[in-house]
Amino acid sequence: LVNLHKELSINVNIIISSLAPHINEIYSLQKKLPFHINIHDDCDAVDMANFMLKADIAISASGFTSYELVCMHVPTLLIPLSDIQYKVAKELVKFTPVHILDFKTKNIENEIRRKVFNIVKLTEFYKDIRNQSHEGFYIDGKGLQRVIQYLMDDK
User: Would you say the pTM of this structure is higher than 0.85?
Assistant: First the structure.
């Protein structure tokens, strides 16, 4: 992000659990980096939804939050932290605007830079998708309604 900051205007919001094992390292980074970082360690579900709605891009592990980012159509760089998260990421990439960062990459800094630039280039396209009707789109936020309707029709 430091190198990207030289070329892009960056406003960073880090949303992290107050119980995260490396939270002190995140706070120390906040003081060292040449751009402003907002750290939020007390977010609830409403806050998360608002952050997602405002985000141009997100960087996240490939856990449950990745499903929320996909449903909100947030362009995302997924960083899987386990084999199961990698499998989830590989499936999500088939249907949504997500990119996967593999930690096994030799030059990870260049790979992050390349992927974030690719996402930034497509941000306007993604914003259009978020603002349009999603008829026929694989993830449309109406899954629960369809499940309820299916259960009601089955009687």
Answer: no
**Each residue's pLDDT tens digit, 36-80:** 888 998 887 778 888 888 888 888 888 888 888 888 888 888 989
Q: pLDDT value at position 139?
A: 57
Q: Return the percent helix, strand and coil in the chain, to nearest 5.
A: 50, 10, 40
Dist CA 99 CA 89 (whole Å): 8
In 21-140, DSSP assigns E strands to: 37-40, 58-60, 76-78, 98-100
Residues in the chain: 155
CA distances from 145 to 22, 138, 152 (A): 39, 14, 10
With the C-alpha atoms ordered 18, 101, 2, 59, is the resulting torsion angle positive or negative? negative
